[in-house]
Amino acid sequence: MGRLKTDTWERMLEQMEQEGVGFYLNGKKTAPREIIRTCCMREKAVYMPDFVMDEEGKLCEVRYDEVTKW
């Protein structure tokens, strides 16, 4: 993944975190930077996050499950 795409992805996740969205990697609360680092190690894989909404329909969590390291 190119550095520009990684920077954009990181800014997007950090903005979401500032708005109160929690991030999880394989069930463990994780900082956006760690999610990006882990996912970028496996550049040929595509990770589709699960977006979790609260009772009012507001995004409250983003979950990256079944992400493996080398």
Task: Describe the protein's architecture and organization.
This protein is an alpha+beta fold and 70 residues long. Helices cover 36% and strands 23% of the residues. The protein has two helices and four strands, in the order αββαββ. The chain has helices at residues 3-18, 32-40, and strands spanning 22-25, 28-29, 50-53, 59-64. The protein has a four-stranded mixed β-sheet with strand order 2-1-4-3, with no helix packed on it. A hairpin with a 2-residue loop joins β1 and β2. α1 (3-18) runs antiparallel to α2 (32-40). The longest helix has 16 residues, at 3-18. The chain is globular, with a radius of gyration of 12 Å. It starts with a helix and ends in a 6-residue tail after the last strand. The model has no long low-confidence stretch (mean pLDDT 82).
Sheet-strand content, in percent, reads 15-25%
According to DSSP, the number of beta strands is: 4
Give start-end ranges of low-pLDDT stretches. Answer: none
Following the backbone from N to C, one meets helices and strands in this order, namely HEEHEE
Query: What is the overall silhouette?
Result: globular
The residue fraction in helices comes out at 25-40%
Number of helices: 2
CA(first)-CA(last) distance: 16 Å
Q: Which class do the helix and strand fractions yield?
A: alpha+beta
| Largest β-sheet summary | 4 strands, mixed
How would you write the strand order of the largest sheet? 2-1-4-3
Whole-angstrom Rg: 12 Å
Overall mean pLDDT stands at 82
